[in-house]
């Protein structure tokens, strides 16, 4: 498995391309072995790359079975970094398309925060937190 990439922007690009390609190894290559993730889908929390791998494999296999292509777009990206640590917050839109007709099936936008550290000159995600605001009347997540 390749180690991360040399810029924070490169990590985001690898994240996006790996999801589009459904490439588990490439996707996980930007995560630290001790990553800690708070997710708003599936498992509430993943500690360590093995736990995160399980979620990612299930996610990508589900897209393959459904014949879906997932495109990712980062918006309102803010990056704060020094020589060894970086902090990113942004809105991430996931848009699912039919692999056959290329018709857009659905789209959601989540809020994301990433914490990264530099390991051997490559940026690695050590913490990720995705969230949705909650409608207080219905108790359901608001996707836009």
Automatic annotation (TrEMBL):
Domain of life: Bacteria
Entry-linked InterPro entries: NTF2-like_dom_sf (IPR032710), SnoaL-like (IPR037401)
Domain SnoaL-like residues, every copy: 8-134
Protein name listed in UniProt: SnoaL-like domain-containing protein
